[in-house]
Amino acid sequence: MKRLFALFAMVIFISISFINCGEDEVTNPVTEPDEYDLSTVPATIGYPMGWDGIVANEAPVHTVSLDEFQIGKYEVTYALWTEVKTWAESNGYIFSNAGQQGGCYPQPCSTTGQHPVTYINWRDCIAWCNAYSDKEGLTPVYYTSSSKTEFYKDSSTGGDIGNDYVDWAGDGFRLPTEAEWEYAARYINGTSVSSGAEHSGCNLDPDIGDCAWYEDNTGSTTHPVGQLHENSLGAYDMSGNVWEWCWDQFDNYPSSFQDNPLGPDVNVSEPYIYRAHRGGGWYNSPAYCRSATRDFSGRGSASEEIYTGFRVARGGFAR
After folding, report:
1. Domains detected in the chain
2. Number of C-alpha atoms within 13 angstroms, CB side, residue 63?
3. Quick check: 259 and 67 in contact, CB under 8 A?
């Protein structure tokens, strides 16, 4: 995350069309979710993904079409993570990291199981999505090879999995692609999207403090999921609280039209592969909680520690 703080020093001096960020966050009387709900994201024949004029890796803006899919209303909580992980470990799954309930600085934290899970790497998320699918009677979508004969169940092993290791038409849980994540964050009504220079839900609540846990309102800690205002899809915390892993290998955007993009093809033998995460976190300024902001980490690294979690997706890719 050091590059984020260095980048902030540059970005803060750039004049951008941010909304006013109030000091008084407004929390919803939302009960703690007792199951993982998903929102349906309608198909789009094309939305402008990315943003020009702020950070180079968010450009060029390019048109992306997506099939209908579902995305989690909440970041995966530590309670749900642990429930599924416990089941998975008795059914042949292995994880690199145990996970942690949220995070804070300085530690120790006064967090609960309803805080987002943190201290996990990208491979942990892949194995967990398969385990959650398996547990719920769905077909896991991630495999150990392009032949798709063996489900991915062990995040402790090295290496990576390629775009062709995935049953994209399957019914199981998975990580959203970057294109899906950004569309869900910016969605308004199926014909328009919100500004990539602002937080998710800005069309409903222009005050970032109503929608996102960020540096000015967190008290230097994560918060239980779903306490602030949702966006137009009914999804919470897509800006702030914790960064969220996505499927894609991190790379520069193409300039041409993209249909259901998966990110660049992955060379699974490459030792240094970086995966994208989105949304900003509890310790970040508004600049990093914008819907177009991108960042990355090594897919086997939990070095992001208390800063990165995830939400899941299902469906899409109805080719």
Report:
1. 1-11+25-319 (3.90.1580.10)
2. 7
3. no
Backbone angles phi, psi at 147, to 5 degrees: -75, -15
Strands of 169-270, DSSP E = 243-249, 258-259
pLDDT in tens, 104-155: 999 899 999 999 999 999 999 999 999 999 999 999 999 999 999 999 999 9
What is the pTM for the complete model shown? 0.89
DSSP 62-90: EEEEE--EEEESSPPBHHHHHHHHHHHHT
Pull the structure tokens for residue 91.
């059914």
Angle between helices 78-89 and 122-135 (to 10 degrees): 70
Burial of 228 (0-12, 13-18, 19+ CB in 10 A): buried
> Distance (Å, rounded) from C-alpha 309 to C-alpha 104?
14
Largest CA distance in the chain: 53
Query: Which CA distances in Å does 82 have to 78, 97, 304?
Result: 6, 11, 19
> Measured between alpha carbons, how far is residue 192 from residues 47, 48, 233, 293 in Å?
8, 9, 13, 19
Per-residue tokens: 86: 């416990």
pLDDT in tens, 233-243: 999 999 999 99
Task: Work out the number of other CB atoms within 10 angstroms of the CB of residue 191.
Answer: 8
